[in-house]
Write a structure and sequence with these properties.
The radius of gyration is 22 Å and the shape is globular. Helix 5 packs antiparallel against helix 8 and helix 6 packs antiparallel against helix 7. It has two domains: 36 residues; 191 residues. It is an all-alpha fold. The longest helix has 40 residues. It is built from eight helices and no strands.
Length: 245
């Protein structure tokens, strides 16, 4: 209970800058260090999830064919971009996979961008966050492969084109498939951790001026890594749902 109150206090102080500590103190509840920067990965992920949910609700209830608003325009641009990428990679029948790919792009990008806000750390710079995104992606594209090809048909995709060497190809394909979780995790984590560390080092050395350049670099890395994560997700989906012919 005490940890939950401390978490809520830090969150409110960071977002709304209200004297929550004084209020809790008058109630006889004492919280230690409530103004510490929010760096808990779960807290930041919940903030991103809440922001994405709010964006969806606003976009849904502000739909207007004749006079689309800013939120609707942004949602349409993102949807069209992801749809074009999915169409070029997966091809026919790409539509069911657009929502998941869009969610991946928006969630990873939002988590990456949090590092640009003073007092906040990038949640994807913690290995547990990229791992938490990579594991559902792994199960998602494998499940879609099973649905598209059936159990036997999907197993055949791991055996290679020639039965004579399937005993050699199968272990390589299985290990390669499992390694995708580690690949997605390390690629995102390593790049965001390095970007965060580089920005922190230069801000500690030179507080003003030059470090702004590294904020721009962090923005660029954030966009690229979100796009790469989405792109790899679509590629894995394309390989999983592809039929033998």
């Amino acid at each position: 209970m005490h940890e939950l109150l401390a978490w809520l206090t830090r969150l409110l102080n960071q977002i709304f800058a209200v004297p929550v500590t004084a209020l809790l103190t008058t109630l006889g509840i004492h919280i230690a260090h409530p103004n510490a920067p929010i760096h808990d990965a779960l807290t930041l992920e919940l903030m991103v999830a809440a922001g994405m949910l709010l964006f969806f609700v606003v976009a849904r209830f502000s739909l207007n064919v004749e006079k689309p608003g800013t939120v609707q325009n942004v949602a349409e641009v993102v949807h069209e971009f992801v749809s074009n990428q999915a169409d070029s990679i997966i091809g026919h029948g790409f539509e069911p996979f657009v929502p998941y790919a869009t969610m991946i792009l928006m969630f990873v990008l939002s988590c990456n961008m949090i590092g640009l806000i003073p007092g906040f750390e990038t949640p994807t710079a913690e290995p547990v966050v990229p791992l938490g995104i990579a594991i559902p992606t792994f199960f998602y594209y494998n499940w879609q492969g099973l649905r598209a090809n059936g159990v036997i048909g999907y197993i055949k995709t791991f055996l290679g084109p020639m039965w004579a060497i399937c005993w050699l190809i199968a272990p390589i394909e299985i290990i390669s498939n499992l390694a995708r979780v580690m690949s997605l995790t390390i690629r995102l984590y390593a790049n965001m951790f390095a970007s965060d560390l580089l920005t922190l080092v230069f801000f500690s050395m030179i507080p003003f001026g030059i470090p702004v350049i590294f904020l721009g670099l962090h923005f660029f890395v954030s966009v690229i890594q979100a796009y790469v994560f989405m792109l790899l997700t679509l590629i894995y989906l394309a390989l999983a749902v592809a039929h033998e012919h």
